[in-house]
Amino acid sequence: TANRIKQSGKIDKAITQIGRKIIVEAELALELAGRKQGGRR
Predict the structure, then answer these.
(1) For position 7, what pLDDT does the model report?
(2) What pLDDT, on the 0 to 100 scale, is given for residue 40?
(3) String of DSSP letters for the chain
(4) 32 and 13 in contact (C-beta within 8 Å)?
(5) pLDDT given for residue 41 in this prediction
(6) Rounded-to-integer distance, Cα 34 and Cα 21, Å
(7) pLDDT given at position 22
(8) Is residue 25 a part of any domain in this protein?
(9) Position 9 in a domain
(10) 25 by DSSP, 3-state: which?
(11) Core vs surface per residue 8-40: b (16+ CB within 10 A) or e
């Protein structure tokens, strides 16, 4: 689940929070999580 991924800290470097906005760099998050690149979009 999303909560487990968040708590694992694996993608912390890809997440930035400015006030109430949370910005996630998708490419970096996928890379840090160890997902394969490519596939359907």
Answers:
(1) 83
(2) 56
(3) -HHHHHHHTTTGGGEEEETTEEEE-HHHHHHHHTPPS-S--
(4) yes
(5) 54
(6) 25
(7) 87
(8) yes
(9) yes
(10) coil
(11) eeebeebeeeeeeeeeeeeeebeebeeeeeeee
Q: Which residues pair with 17 in a beta bridge?
A: 22
CA 8 to chain centre: 11
Q: Please count the structural domains in the chain.
A: 1
- pLDDT at position 39, please? 56
Domain limits for position 10: 2-33
| 41: in domain | no
Residue 40 lies in a domain: no
> What are the structure tokens assigned to 23, written together?
């910005």
For residue range 1-41, list pLDDT tens digits in order: 677 877 888 888 898 988 989 898 999 988 888 865 555 55
How far is residue 25's CA from residue 14's CA, in Å, rounded to a whole number?
5
